[in-house]
Amino acid sequence: MLIGRVEHDPKKQIQAQLPESTINRLDQYRELYQLTFGEKVSTSDLVDLMLRNVMDRDREFKRFLKDQERKEKQEAKQEAKQQGQGGEALAGEPRDGGGERNHTTGEEDRKHGQPKQGMGR
């Protein structure tokens, strides 16, 4: 069989209409499932297995999912970067932490290893 055993995940209900011929084939597949695994399977569980099997094997769908994941990661990274820059700077301090002089104290930014200097004294 192309499908494995049923996983019992939480379910959401959908409404679908299928041709009678497809429903007849599903019933036959349910019989095969029961013979193979020794247990009954509901039509909804069987349809779930079949759909997941198709999606798992579809290379184009896998690429689509990877692209979506990559986009989401990039967006999250951009959002985190924007939130990190959005904090309030102290009075006279640059937001980007560049080596500008603090106009209140005349001190140089310590990140650049410059010594403290007084205000002309």
TrEMBL record:
Pfam hit, one: DUF2274
Region described as Disordered: 67-121
InterPro entries cross-referenced by the UniProt entry: DUF2274 (IPR018733)
Basic and acidic residues composition-biased segments: 67-80, 93-112
Domain of life where this protein originates: Bacteria
Identification of the protein by name: DUF2274 domain-containing protein
Organism of this sequence: Vreelandella salicampi
